Structure formats: C-alpha cells, structure tokens
Amino acid sequence: MPVAAKESCPAALGLRPRRTLRLASGRPALPSPSPRSPAGWFWSPLGLVASLSFATRFYRLREPPHICWDETHFGKMGSYYINRTFFFDVHPPLGKMLIGLAGYMSGYDGTFPFQKPGDKYEHHNYIGMRGFCAFLGSCLIPFCYLTVLELSKSLHAAMLTAAFLIFDTGFITLSQYILLDPILMFFLMGAVLSMVKYNSCANRSFSAPWWFWLALTGINLAGAMGVKFVGLFVVLFVGLNTICDLWELLGDLSLSLVTLGKHFLARVLCLILLPLALYTALFAVHFAVLNRSGPGDGFFSSGFQSRLIGNNLHNVSVPEYLAYGSIVTVKNLRMAGGYLHSHWHLYPEGVGARQQQVTAYLHKDLNNLWIIKKHNVNTDHSDPSFPVEFVRHGDVIRLEHKETSRNLHSHQHEAPLTRKHLQVTGYGINGSGDSNDFWRIEVAGRKAGKRIKVLRSQIRLIHLATGCILGSTGKTLPKWGWEQVEVTCTPYQKESPNTLWNVEDHINPRLPNISLDVLKPSFPEILLESHMVMIRGNSGLKPKENEVTSKPWHWPINYQGLRFSGINETDYRVYLLGNPVIWWMNLITIGLYLIMAMFVSVALKRGVQLTAEHKELSQVLLNGGGIIMLGWLLHYLPFFMMGRVLYFHHYFPAMLFSTMLTGITWDVFLKFWAGSQASGIQRRKIYQYGIVMLILLSMYSFYLFHPLSYGMVGPLASDPNSPMAGLRWLETWEF
Fold first, then answer.
1. For residue 64, is the peptide bond before it cis, meaning its omega torsion is within 30 degrees of 0?
2. CA-CA distance, 399 to 464, in Å (whole number)?
3. What EC designation does it have (predicted)?
4. Planar angle of CA 286, 289, 294, nearest 5 degrees
5. Strand pairing of 370-374 and 501-507?
6. Which domains does the chain have, with CATH numbers?
7. Of 15, 74, 183, 430, which alpha carbon lies 20 to 30 A from 350's?
8. What is the pLDDT of residues 121-148, one digit of tens each?
C-alpha cells in the first residue's frame, strides 16, 4: 500500500498499521512477544490474568446477603421478566432480560419484591444473578489484556493493564452486584477487541477470521446499545475507525473499484444491518415476553396498553369514531400523562378564578368522563330521533364534565403553577356556560373534515377565544388540588406530547362497537413509541432527595464514591471507590501520553534520526495509543454536555480505556527511558523492574483498600480507631 495513503488519516483518529510491528534495531530488543513465538507465551499469561480476574470478582460474592444500591431496580426488573409483567425503564431491555434469564436458569422464582436497599434476600436465590454479572465483569480484564497485546505487541504492556484492572477496587465492586454496568462494559470491550482483531486481519481481507471478527464487532455493538444508550459511544468509536479504514483503502491504487465496493458492503452488512437487526429482534423478544399488565402501563399510550393482558383496555370493544353525545376519557400523551379530570372542589382564593378545578389524574375514575357536545346547541344526541353526527377534524366543540355538568373552560387568569399559562376550569350550570367553553378539535397530521378515531388519533384542543392549547405541565398541585397534575392552556403553539391527547374510553350506544384488537399499534409503531418514552425518561431524570450525584470532572480524580451498602459502624459497608493509586496513575498517564505523543510527532515531522526500534515504538504510541485515547475521549467528554443527573459509575467505561492507555504509555516510556540509560542486559533489567514496580504498587494499594469492595464492619474511617482511618485521603470519601 502506498505510504501516502497510510499517512492520509491522522493517528489521533486511531489509524492502525496494516502490518505487524517488529523491532528492527541492531541493539538487543526489549522484551516483546512475537505472534510467531511458541504458544506458551500467550496462553500462560492469559490463564493467569483470567484466573485472578475471576478469583477477585467471585470472592465473597454472597456478601452482603441483602439488596445493595441499584439491585433494587435491576433485580426487580429481572423478576418482572420471569413473571412476564410489563414495566418501564429508561434503558433498552437487553441487560434486564439477561439478568432475568440468569435468575430463571439458577432457580430464582421471581417472587422477591426488591423493595429497598438493605432488605435481606433470606431464602431467595440471588446468587445466580450476581454470579452472572460477576462472570461478565471478570471477562473485561482478559478482553482489555488481549486488546493491548494486539495494539502494542508487548506482553508487559498487556500484563500492566490487566494488573491495574484486576486490583482496582471500583471495578470489583461494580462487578459483584445485580447491575447493568458489567453487562454494558462486557459488550463494549467485546466490540473494541473484535474491532482491533479485524483491523489486524487487514492483510487477509475476506478470509474466515476477518469475517468472524467483523461480524462479532457488529454483534457486540448491538449488545452494547441493547443494554444502555451510552452504547452509542462505542458505535461512534467503531464508526470512526471504519471511516478511517475505508479512507485508507481508497488510497490503495492496487485495489479495484469492485474490491472497494465489496469492502464497503461488508462493513454495511456487519456493522450497520446486522446490529440493527439484532437490536430490533431483542425488542421483539422484550414485547413478546412482557405481555401482562404491570407498573409500566401508564408511561405508554392507550393503544400500547391495549396489547397487555390484564389491562382494562385489553379485549375491549368500543365505537371506532367519535360522535356528538359520546362519553369519553381523554388521556394526555406526555410520559406518565394523566386523564383529563375534574371534581366538585374549587380553586382556592388567590389562585385564578374561584371556579371548579380541572386537573390530570393518573388513575381510572368516574370524574374522568366527559361528554362531547356541539358548541352552539344543547341537543340531546342520545335521542334516536336525531341523526348520528361524527366529530371531525376542525370542529368547534364543548366538553361537558359528566359528573358535575360543567364545561371545560379557560380564560385570561394565570394558571396556578406555570407562569404565562392560562387557567383551565369547569364552568357553567347544566352545560350552560359562555363562549370561553368553546374548543376547536384538531388531529395531528390530518386534513379538515376527517373523522376522529378512538385510541389512534392524536388530538389538540385549541381554545377558540384565546388561541391557547390545552395541555398538562406535569407539575404536581398542592394539597388543595389533591396532589394531582396541573392542566393549563398554553399560549405557545409548539406541538409536544404535553399538548397532545387521545381518546381512550368511548361510550355511545348508538354506534356499533369494534374490538380494540383492530386498533392495536403495529410492531414498528410500538418500537418507535418505546424509544420516545425512554428518551424522554432519560432526559427527565433528576436527583432524588439526599441522593449522592457527581459532576464529570469529579470522576477521573476519584473525588467521591458511592455507598453501596451500610451507613454506620454496625452495618456491613460496601463503598464504590476506585483504587486511588491506580486512578491517579491513570490521570497522570493521560498527561504523559499527550506530552510523549507531541514530542514523537514533532520528531517524526522534523525528520529527526531515530533508530528502527524507536520508530516502531513511536508507531505503537501514536497508532495503538491513539485508538485508546480516542476511545477515552468518546466515552468521557459527552457527559459534559448531558443535562440529566449523573453518577460516579458512568465513568467506568472510559476508565477501561484510560487503564489500557496506561499500559501502552508506560511500556513505551520505559523502553525509551531504558534505551537512553544503558544497553544490553541492563536495559532489560531497568525496563522489567519498572513494569514490576508498577504492578507491585497496584497490588499493595489493593491490599490497603480492598475492604471497600469486600465489606467493612466496625468504626468508620473518621474514627481514629478504624483500620481505614489513615486511608481517608480526601474529605469527600465517605467510608
């Protein structure tokens, strides 16, 4: 391949060399395994790494025998899968499905309530779900080891990376409980390792190993996206590598256009179509398994709920189109939107006009019923002597509250909670009111004159006198409003779920009924709806009272941990905190890498004469280190732009890349430094002693801080008599 083509894509974007790195100096080379060496160098260290990984993650896995931190959420969701009960979560379903499957396969019956942290598991079999997460967490270290080995061709760099991950207290803690994090990181690192492996097969394009690693990359991308939406970061990471790869191939003049087309199609097939198919399939399984009504129903539309066995809309027959005289319930389309509701209670003095309250109520109730009437006549449309008239898009209507006979009304008084919105009330006597009771009904995306369909039509109610739109703000009213949800008339014309409604219940004896099965949404529709609800749920996440949150700048410096279990000296305490020596070493290494990469880049650009060995080391630093540095940036920087609540554990995927960068950087640094200090055997000793010292440092710091992961009982670290007293190096550490 022409040299110019190789240099056309910057190393910082992870351009990998298309040949095996070899040291070619006349001086004795520093230890670096070759792919052609006997198999022993490969399997023995890998076996040691895997053994230590599993030993540290499975040690004391049963402790503590009660719910810890977010086990209350994800253990409960695993139970829902076993019981086939529908629920809502802000993350895609794969992680919870696998937790439920692990529980089912290990004999857990799905009956433990998972109510709150600290509840004892007693006779319930929780170890299968914890063991599954610990197994995937244990696989992370071999994955990172193999990735660094492939990028650097240095056994020592790979072993240093593995040691830092094995002896990090944070990764141990995060792997030992029923959480999504080890599952997410398993697929994430599986995608990175597969990508690096198929990069290394570049000289054997379209061979069986090349296809295997390319397809496995796509499978792991689907897995990462299927666990959490932050899996998008690794999708972007692989996408940038693929763009760079194709750009490099484009510069290879020995390749025909047909071959280039095959390369492009292979990547479309394995990295786009295959992940999309698998991602869609897991949602199909999710919807098929969770077919019973449950706590997640209210987050979704009426049409979605009609699919669920046990829901009040399942197998119900109602008239299909709205007509004047119909009795209906109207449901807001915002997430967890309530039903349009009114009751005899009035707004209190000083809150707009002292008229009947109109709210949104989250539960079924007779006070949710409204009668659709013409705006200018008070005809009894139940009288068979009058013809049936259907309500159409663009009609002006009145909504009369069935229980109180007052009309849905708005006027120029301000809403109770939301400034610049108008108050909505119930007004009039026995359906007689004024012109402020008139509303124009419109269907989103429809033309004038079209009939309005139950469940399916998304409608807006526009107040005729003021031009405002009926909506639900999602704000909870005070006790005078029975802590129901505020309904207002918003003057802003922006279309959003807050101002969209659909008709759910529909009673009209003069119209023929049809089964709601006919109106059930299709799979693409429920797939789209579930993603809209998840995205809105994610963006709406706010910290709970007394909850420990953090900012992204806190994470790399290990500023503050998370309590997994226990708060006092009699409790069994587990505290999520990274091994500070390892984390601060990783932070220092990022700066060291940037300095080294800058100097090496300048030296190469200026044509400084380097030995063949130093040139190869420079390529490892820029290419291998560049890939890993890009991965760290993509998994860390986006959090600075997020508006949702953030926690310390969000940094751990980026921490994987930071640790791999540490292994590569220190390996190259020690080789450079040893090469400038001595020669021959002395160089080997300086290099090897440096690696061993770093590994021993990680082991000693693990010895000091391992109680954070495996549990502490007794005095808190703030007590001078505590064995952890001298280890509280930062005031923000709360163990």
1. yes
2. 13
3. 2.4.1.109
4. 95
5. unpaired
6. 44-285+556-727 (no CATH), 317-515 (2.80.10.50)
7. 430
8. 999 999 999 999 999 999 999 999 999 9
